[in-house]
Specification:
Blueprint: H1 2-16, H2 25-48, H3 53-57, H4 65-83, H5 99-118, H6 126-154, H7 159-173, H8 182-206, H9 214-232, H10 252-282, H11 289-294, H12 296-301
Helix pairs in contact: 1-2, 1-4, 2-4, 2-10, 4-9, 4-10, 5-6, 5-7, 6-7, 6-8, 7-8, 7-9, 8-9, 9-10
Length: about 300
Amino acid sequence: MTFQGMFAVITVALITGAFAERIKFSAFVVFSVLWATFVYAPLCHWVWGPGGWMGKMGALDFAGGTVVHISSATAALACVLVLGKRRGFGTEAFIPHNLPLTILGAGLLWFGWFGFNAGSALEAGAVASSALVVTNVAAAMGSVTWALVEWLHRGKPTTLGAASGAVAGLVAITPASGFVATIPALIIGVGAGGFCYLGCAWKMKLGYDDALDVVGIHGVGGTWGALATGIFAGWTGVVQPGGLGLLAGKPVQLWIQFVSVMATIAFVFIATLIILLVVKALIGLRVSEEDEVQGLDLSQHGESGYAL
């Protein structure tokens, strides 16, 4: 129960990265409670609950590709479209103010993800061991691939890019971690680093203000991971009986994964829009321009993050 509670709260937390710096704290609290109740809980039941229609259909999602990553990214997109852009977006540079803390955070994520994915086996056994190994492999390949693509595209690899690629690899391997062996994990990590880099690069062209690239990393990475599960599950080694994909002789699995991805996106986007409109009508969503300029630390909480 507590393990599933962790999944629920981290999914809501992922959404916040997209609309950072412009939402009222009161609206954030109400939105989070409503979203976890009326969006996350039904979706979680559809995939993992007894009698859930996605689970009965045969959708493979070992540790939350659709339930956590695609759902949070879809909700994040709905939020940024309704809330609008931050003041100065597109004309001012928004960069991490402390890169060492960013890398520390990425390292904590990487380590914690072992519990997220391997723990989804619900026991210390062969499946958990395999999930831990492929999680690390995909994260490493995601980091290397993102840095390489960035190097080729921008002329220089960055530490921030390597950290982003690691998270992309972790996202992509999440749904597949209990169903694939090492070679597929390598491929999934490479795809995550490349696809998510492109997804984030397209943000400025599409014009939406996703502060922490939730859509580009968790949306693109989660979608790639869910579909890749349908391709690679059981290939080069069966981790779990029944977890077979296209290359292991079960082509229908890719179609099942596609249906589950599209159903998740449609349900979450519409439900999130409804919740946002309700919260907006009741208490409002966005802080005033003056509060945004002052910063939410001061305007919403009356405190400063740094006393320099």
